[in-house]
Amino acid sequence: MPVRRALFAAIACGIVASAPALAAPAVAATDMARWRAQAANVSIARDTWGVPHVTGKTDADAVFGLMYAQAEDDFPRVELNYINAMGRLAEVEGERELYRDLRMKLFIDPLELQAQYRASPPWLRKLMDAFADGLNFYLATHPHVKPRLIARFEPWMALSFSEGSIGGDIESVNLAQLEAFYGQQTAPVALASVETGLASGLEPEPSGSNGFAIAPAITKNGHALLMINPHTSFYFRPEVQVTSGEGLNAYGAVTWGQFFVYQGFNERLGWMHTSGGGDVIDEYLESIVDRDGAWFYRYDGGLRPLKAMPLTVPYKLANGAMGSKTITVYYSHHGPIVRAQDGKWVAVRLMNEPLKALMQSYTRTKARDYAAFYKTMELRTNSSNNTVYADADGNIAYFHGNFIPVRDPRFNWKQPVDGSDPATEWKGLHTVAQTITLFNPKNGWIQNTNNWPYSAAGVHSPRQQDYPAYMSVYGENARGLHAVKVFQNKTGFTLDSLIAASYDSELTAFEALLPPLFAAYDALPAGGAQRLALADKIALLRAWDWRYSLTSTATSLAVFWGQELAELAGKQAREQGVPVVDFMATDKVHGEQRLAALATAADKLQRDFGNWQTPWGEINRFQRLTGDIVQPFDDAQPSLPVPYASGNWGALAAYGQSSKSRTKRIYGERGNSFVAVVEFGPRVRAKSILAGGQSGDPKSPHFQDQAAMYARGEFKEVLFYPEQVERHLERRYRPGE
Q: What is the 8-class DSSP label of residue 10?
């Protein structure tokens, strides 16, 4: 296709004289009076773990107090989440984040969010007002706290971070490809496929979650149980309780800056979200035509004009001043253009319903039975999550996704489809009843580990052939295989035995990975140098039961071997579209590679730790030194031994390092973070644990007061009822006191 002008011509750079002022604006006396009046309707009770139990006269009062309490615990994380959600990260981090901001701005328009705020129902507008007021009151009463960028929060900002999840969906757009498309100086580059530069090795530490629900028939006390086990980055969500005189009483994990409990429970039911599995984001190949300097794309035998829109992205310069770059971006009716492939431009279509998403996120916390919870699901705006559910009526349930577009099943929706063909259009949304669900399966348990739903309830699981392929695109994973082992044919579950099952120490992936290694070793000639050198390593692994522990040297060797083999096989696995761990178990990985990886792993252990038989607890550690968003790690500083392992290997209690290692030891950054188990009897009983502690302030006694318990897998009792809080009260106060 002839292209005669460069995309770079659409980009202009400018310099702004100085960075925006970060000092808090003057607070009007009327605002301060209004905030103090609302604060008088709020009580915050901090228990002995620092967990805030926020009570308000109305829901809006409770939201006001919840946001104030979050800001007390970690205002930098609250602010950063909104800086990122609104596409303003480069304003504080510099030009390196420019295209991350551009990606957000392709979908997030503040003017549109403001219009949606004005059009929202009065009850929700009150909550958004209270959200902003609670944060602004905190800043007004804590003048020593200096925001990096947001000196005043506005109510509409809550719509930019509604966890529907448009934010998580947007992050599926590849930044390198986006920059290559909009940042290159020559059009031919923009019209060619761009290499993403994917590294070899394992996928990043799994960021999904485990959700387990147990029916009364297989519990000791005849009450439903729920395991809430998100695998997020550590310190991503604090633990809260928020209660009002209007029926709100939710306990659980709230993502910093949001005013609803994201994963948790009330006195009647609980919900656990696991990262999706349905195909909810589609790419369209647009055939571009240049007609006399204007861009068009082919559709249904004709041409349609591309929408061109200039987006200005400010960014901080090295000298502290502000620069900006204005980039003309393009949209077809399918969505924004984000990259090029095979001479065509690729548009992305995804859910963008922040108002309905925020409504669903909040209203599910107030549901009191399955029918009410199901009604919230009918809003169909939780695009990135599955939901595992349990309630006091004895019901357990599973919802595989919540936002699933209806599409023609003839097309392969895992790949970009022809944007010129009207048959590829979305045809509305599937109803909840049409999606993959479970309700009270006969086996009595439900599990999801970000795996496919076809093993969610053993032999009583949904059948793959009953649904379009696009409804579930993930396969089985090692954690899913592990979960089925743990729950199959078990009865008599209690809170403690469900915790034990959820922390079962088997690393299931090695059941399939080790036999090919042993076969490769057995094929070596007797008396050969390689056979002799590896004999004691193979013997250690043959005797291993695939279980981690602090004292296990086999765990250390197996994990280091798996990491080395992934480096050798990862690129080939990705080229074939197969998960790396699955690919490593196939005969496409040569025996020589398996043996070489073992030798390399043993050498690395010997070099870094002085002995290739080093106990796992000497290597795998928990360390929290500062309140930084990205934690520094130091082998010379104190740390705690942790027995858990990466979810890549099938560890249900997942624990791994997600950033590039600069230390010899492994320091956890992602995995089990907030974990809770709940029993829905006549009175709710629950236990929980946080990685580290409630506060992000190293000077706080709650910065890492849960760290040692976390490392041991020891849970604290949840203080759900007022009398329980009173018996373990550290402080009670009102916002501003």
A: G
- CA–CA–CA angle 646, 650, 651 (5° rounding): 55
Cα atoms in the 13 Å half-sphere on the side-chain side of 1: 22
* Amino acid identity at 641: P
N residues, the chain: 737
The CA-atom distances, in angstroms, between 172 and each of 100, 256, 333 are 11, 21, 19
**In this prediction, what percent of the chain has a pLDDT beyond 70?**
93
Residue 299 has pLDDT above 60, yes or no: yes
C-alpha distances (whole Å) from 123 to each of 120, 130, 241, 251, 265 are: 8, 11, 21, 21, 22
What average pLDDT score do residues 572-585 get? Answer: 91
pLDDT at 162: 87
For residue 202, name the pLDDT band (cuts at 50, 70, 90): confident
**What's at 569, amino acid-wise?**
A
Asked if pLDDT for residue 616 goes beyond 50, the answer is: yes
Closest CA to 140 of 45, 242, 71, 76: 71
Q: Looking at residue 714, what is its pLDDT?
A: 97
199: which 2 tokens?
């590294």
pTM: 0.94
**Whether the Cβ atoms of residue 650 and residue 509 lie closer than 8 Å to each other:** yes
Strands 335-341 and 42-47: unpaired
Instruction: For residue 705, report the phi and psi dihedrals to the nearest 5 degrees.
Output: -75, -10
Whole-number Å distance between alpha carbons of 112 and 131:
19
- The two three-digit tokens of residue 158, written as one number: 């809550």
Q: Tokens 């004691």 correspond to what residue?
A: 536
- Residues 459-500 have pLDDT tens digits of 999 999 999 999 998 899 999 999 999 999 999 999 999 999
Instruction: Summarize the confidence of residues 502-519 as an average pLDDT.
Output: 98
Other C-beta atoms within 10 Å of 481: how many?
19
What's the rounded Cα separation, in Å, for the pair 230 and 508?
A: 19
- Three-state DSSP state, 182: helix
**Spatial separation of the C-alpha atoms in residues 623 and 626, rounded to whole Å:** 9
Contacts of 1-7 with CB under 8 Å at 24 or more apart are 1/191, 1/287, 1/288, 1/289, 1/290, 1/343, 2/290, 3/187, 3/188, 3/191, 3/290, 4/187, 4/290, 5/187, 5/293, 6/184, 6/185, 6/186, 6/187, 7/181, 7/182, 7/184, 7/187, 7/190
CA torsion sign for 422, 423, 426, 427 is positive
Beta strands in 28-172 (DSSP E): 42-47, 52-56
Cβ(333)–Cβ(420) under 8 Å?
no
- Spatial neighbors of 632 by CB under 8 A, at least 6 apart, are 625, 626
Enclosing H/E stretch for 571: helix 553-575
| Burial tier of 116 (Cβ tally within 10 Å: 0-12, 13-18, 19+) | middle
Would you place residue 443 in the very low, low, confident or very high pLDDT band (cuts 50, 70, 90)? very high
Residue with tokens 């770079």: 8
- Amino acid identity, residue 526? A
Tokens of 162: 């509604």
For residue range 368-397, list pLDDT tens digits in order. Answer: 999 999 999 999 998 889 999 999 999 999
